[in-house]
Specification:
Helices cover 46% and strands 0% of the residues. The protein is an all-alpha fold. The longest helix has 18 residues. The radius of gyration is 18 Å and the shape is globular.
Length: 167
């Protein structure tokens, strides 16, 4: 994460409030340590009204520590792969591949996290049971022939553009 985004104050939302992935990771970290700050972490402080009304509950130094730990975990333990899709419709919505990819992974009996996966400490049952850091689209149908062709075509296009292809 860009270090400047870690320099937030009580007048600003924290990075986890703009990223559900980071929010879920922070919940798991706090729950792992049985930290009561989990109640505060769950509050969405993106609106000025909410910050003005409940901002006194925040411990900005603690939030920065948690955000730093999330960033450390992401940098040290995660790798990301992507394919570039030309349109929003190819990515999301009724015709997009997001939902079928999540559905495929959620229903895969071989795709399980390790015993020491941080998500096992998530307070959200869907995350613990699915082994994925999300709760939407877990019951979606898996990838079909059309989705597979979309993915394969995107990979072919991406390979011809080395700047966008991650090996």
């Amino acid at each position: 994460m860009n270090e400047s985004k870690m320099n937030f104050s009580s007048n600003q939302p924290a990075p986890h409030e703009r990223s559900i992935f980071r929010a879920h990771m922070g919940r798991a970290l706090l729950n792992q340590h049985r930290d009561g700050y989990l109640k505060i972490w769950k509050i969405d402080f993106t609106s000025r009204e909410k910050r003005e009304k409940l901002g006194y509950l925040r411990d900005i130094n603690k939030e920065k520590e948690i955000e730093s730990e999330i960033t450390r975990i992401l940098r040290n333990n995660f790798t990301f792969r992507f394919i570039e899709l030309e349109s929003q419709a190819e990515r999301m919505g009724k015709t997009g591949i997001e939902s079928p990819i999540i559905g495929t992974l959620a229903h895969c009996r071989l795709c399980r996290p390790s015993a020491n996966w941080l998500g096992n400490y998530s307070p959200m049952q869907q995350i613990r049971e699915s082994g994925l850091w999300l709760v939407q689209h877990l019951k979606s149908k898996g990838i079909d022939e059309r989705n597979l062709n979309t993915i394969l075509d995107a990979i072919k296009r991406n390979k011809s553009h080395p700047s966008t292809y991650v090996s």
